[in-house]
Amino acid sequence: MRHMDTAAYMRETYERSTPSSASAARRAARSLPGGDTRSMTWHAPYPLYLTRGEGTRVQDADGKWYEDMIANYGALAHGHNHPAIVASVAAQVARGTAPGGPTAVQYEHAERLRSLNPSLERVRYCNSGTEATMWAVRAARAYTGRDVIVKMDGGYHGTHEWGQVNAFFNANRSAPAVLDGLPEAQLAPGVPLTTANDVVAVPFNDAAALGAVLDHLSDQVAAVIVEPVLGVGGGIPAAPGYLAAVRRLTSAADVLLILDECATLRLGPWQVKHGLTPDLTTHSKIIGGGLPLGVFGGRKDIMSLFDPAGSSPIYHASAFGGNSLSLAAGIAALDRFGKDEIGHLDRLGERLRSGVDAAAASANIAARAIGEGGLSYVHFGAAHPRNAADTARLREGRSELRSLLHLSLLRAGFLTAPHGLLCQHVLTQPEQVDAFVEAYGNALDTLHPYIATHHPELITGPSGATLHPDAS
Asked: How far apart are the first and last CA of the chain?
């Protein structure tokens, strides 16, 4: 196989081995734009259609099994069809899925969640992380009487209007930044330009930039919202001391701090592990045991605004918010997510990142894994990104390369995400991580001729140094 044929060969191999997924994609496209209903899971030439999950594996429409290395983009912690979760769901189905009134599983789940994260003095339930961040921001605005929200450039907080400002996805409208040196406001298609009046983006890991914004806007800012690990912006962990500085700055400015831990609950949660107390927190993903569930909460005085017996309560309604089925699954999951399980995921993540780095060095390719605990991302390039702009530079012009790596790993029997996310399950064992690292190294070896031709800046010498002046 000549290097110029690598891309065509990999796509042809994928199509030849997944005819049932191709057929499903054609059928789905008659009802669903693009043949899928979730932007993140689509990839060229068509997404892999999955029929079942079992433990740490998933099966595609052609009957092939894959080791699941993304855990539904971090939303699963206990693998697929965990017996205790299945039993809890089955028992709850017999009692009712959403009876339409308060149930015991609401406070039973809340008590477990508060035990895991003590900053949640009071909580309210919804259906997703998107809803959770939306309601946390609503609470902050209602409590402070201010409108402006400060977020991180490239931070992802869901698909509502303000969440789609500088969210590291395609944008077709922009507005000037409020201060020189800040990223201009980038708005996703369909988001009105007026949204930029109330949302300010600052670079992640840059406390000085945040301080300047808080000084400039003084009493207009309701809250700062931040992910402890910048998710779709590249899996970048907060630099040591950064979030402590954010906490000091927000407290000094009398601005609320919202920590979006929808993804990073699987790390401990992050705030407990690192000793930081926000005013409000959002969780989703793993708290529902594989079913849709979101939660927002924090200080009792702020959350009291949702008490219907109050003088002017925030109206918060949802037919399936805090539904019994998701809460029952979540209770079973949280009962099996303590220090031992979190420590296991931490060790798996460290093993994976060190293994990926070693495999890349052995293949003489500039690539690295970053992240924290059981949450990792793989990047091409020698640089360590500090913010979303760095990630954009690392990805520029390399979309085909990342696609080929993804197809190579699928061919080897590992389900991954094209943008580089890697997550494990509590059931994942070290040997499975080692097998993935081996497959990753083999994929880089296979792609080496392609990389040498199309991305020579990524080729390294025996010492690990790049042979091209620009390997960022």
From this structure: 29
Q: Give me Rg for the CA atoms of the chain.
A: 22
User: What DSSP letter does each residue of 322-364 carry, written as one string?
Assistant: T-HHHHHHHHHHHTT-SHHHHHHHHHHHHHHHHHHHHHHHHTT
> Is the pLDDT reported for residue 352 higher than 80?
yes
> Which residue reads 């499903």 in tokens?
24
DSSP state of 253: T
Cβ-in-10-Å burial (0-12, 13-18, 19+) of 145 comes to: exposed
Residues of the chain with CATH 3.40.640.10: 83-334
- What CATH architecture is 3-79+339-458? Alpha-Beta Complex (3.90)
**Catalytic-role residue among 156, 377, 440, 450:** 156
Residues of the chain with CATH 3.90.1150.10: 3-79+339-458
Region 211-220: mean pLDDT is: 95
Whole-angstrom distance, CA of residue 447 vs CA of residue 20: 27
pLDDT digits (tens, 9 = 90+) for 166-205: 998 788 899 999 999 999 999 999 999 999 999 999 999 9
What is the CATH T-level fold of the domain 83-334, as seen in this structure? Aspartate Aminotransferase; domain 2 (3.40.640)
CB 106 within 8 A of CB 311: no
**Among the ranges given (128-137, 301-310, 455-464), the one the predictor scored with the smallest mean pLDDT:** 455-464
Task: Mark whether 260 is an active-site residue.
Answer: yes
**pLDDT of 466 higher than 80:** no
**Are 289 and 78 within 8 A, CB to CB?**
yes
Can you say whether the dihedral through the CA atoms of 98, 100, 103, 107 is positive or negative?
Answer: positive
Q: Report pLDDT digits (tens) over 254-286.
A: 999 999 999 999 999 999 999 999 999 999 999
Query: Which positions ≥6 away from 208 have C-beta within 8 Å?
Result: none
Report the alpha-carbon distance of residue 394 to residue 62 in Å, rounded: 35
Specify the pLDDT at position 3.
47
Residue 109 and residue 198: Cα distance in Å, rounded? 34
How many beta carbons lie within 10 A of that of residue 297, not counting itself? 27
Whether 156 is a known active-site residue: answer: yes
430 prior amide bond cis, ω within 30: no
Confirm if 353 and 370 have CB atoms less than 8 A apart: yes
Active site residue 9: no
Measured distance CA(226)–CA(219) in Å, rounded: 19
- Residue 151 bridge partners (DSSP): 201
Distance, in Å, from the CA atom of 417 to the CA atom of 405, rounded to the nearest integer, reads 10
Tokens representing 291 are 């079913």
pLDDT higher than threshold 90 for residue 215: yes
DSSP three-state, residue 151: strand
